[in-house]
Amino acid sequence: MRAKKHWKLSLGDSIMWSGSWGSNSPQEAVITGIQINEVNGSKEGGQVEDIDWDYITERNILVNLDNGHWAWGFQIKQL
User: Fold this and answer.
1) What is the pLDDT of residues 22-67, one digit of tens each?
2) Does 3 map to a domain?
3) Which of 15, 41, 53, 79 could lock 59 by a disulfide, CB 3.0 to 4.6 Å apart?
4) Residue-range definition of the domain harbouring residue 29
5) Gap between the Cα atoms of 29 and 42, Å rounded
6) Global pTM value
7) Where are the beta strands (DSSP E) in the chain?
8) Rounded to an integer, what distance in angstroms lies between the CA atom of residue 62 and that of residue 71?
């Protein structure tokens, strides 16, 4: 039996992250912070503990990673 697909991105989740605006090879990282931006491409917004993956597009969210980097929504993928 297959595991149920995880449809939310939550603090502590492992993801695949591509640095250099998505052009680098993907690396595994852990989410340490999630911010929903007020406007797509803005760096202003509110912190949340989780968000539906369906909502993550382009630059509508910023995430902080355990490797000291941050990323826009388009730079991360589910494992």
Assistant:
1) 788 999 999 999 999 998 888 899 999 999 999 998 899 999 999 9
2) no
3) 41
4) 8-78
5) 23
6) 0.86
7) 8-10, 14-17, 27-37, 45-48, 50-52, 61-65, 70-72, 76-78
8) 6
